[in-house]
Amino acid sequence: NMSHVHSTPFKHHLHNPSSLLSLLRRDSTPKQPKSSSSKSSNNFLRFFKLFPLLTSGCKVAAMLAGSKQYRRAMIADHATIGTLFGHRRGRITLAIQEDPHSLPYFVLELPIHSTAFNKEMSCDIVRIAFETETKSHKKKLTEEYVWAVYCNGRKVGYSIRRTQLSDDEMHVLQTLRGVSMGAGVLPEHHNHDPHDDHDSSKREKADQGDQITYLRARFERVVGSKDSEALYMINPDNADGPELSIFFVRVR
After folding, report:
1. What is the pLDDT of residue 63?
2. Cα–Cα distance, 200 to 4 (Å, whole number)
3. What is the distance, to the nearest Å, from the Cα of residue 140 to the centroid of all Cα atoms in its chain?
4. What is the DSSP string of 146-170?
5. What is the pLDDT of residue 53?
6. DSSP-based three-state secondary structure for 77
7. Contact indicator for 105, 80 with CB cutoff of 8 Å
8. How confident is the model at residue 217, as a pLDDT?
9. Where is region (Disordered) located (predicted)?
10. Helix, strand or coil for residue 82?
11. Is this model's pTM higher than 0.85 or not?
12. H/E element holding 246?
């Protein structure tokens, strides 16, 4: 069976970036999540029902990397890989790769904190839109640097595309190298000094307070024109879940 791709009303607008942008800017009226301070930080976990539960990222990723047969089964299709990750107390980063083993061709830290983003994930539809303005015709769309960021119709700020990965970002992508889709929690990356074992309990408490949550999924990439493209999350077979779409629009 082929993986299921959620239908979307936006595909026919991709050839007209202005039309698409007007739709994405419009304030949406998503279902209000059940409000609770203790529950809001766990809204991200709704995606765990869609993907393999990888709560021990390092061990599971190592297992997948060591199993060629299982890795081929998970990375069989030539779909774009998108990873959304970030510290619980920090901001969300988006990394887009051609495959889990290649360096990302697009990395950007969203101007939204993890707790706020996780609340958005509790909605049935999640739309992230990036808008850039330029007079140049030389760059590819995803090579632009400055982006206005919209989340579910609301402008949340501006971001600058990264040209280099931070140590933490590289750690996350290296850890998930054998995973094509999944969601879970990774411990914070430390440059461990063996002489600091007496601080292990302190480090453990710090890790629990600022772990890295991640969602990795396969996306169908649809190019409308040289100024517009979109990524639509491909859900596992027969799985019902939220619709996640990412749009790139360039305005000249």
Report:
1. 34
2. 44
3. 21
4. EEEEEETTEEEEEEE--SS--HHHH
5. 39
6. coil
7. no
8. 93
9. 184-209
10. strand
11. no
12. strand 243-251
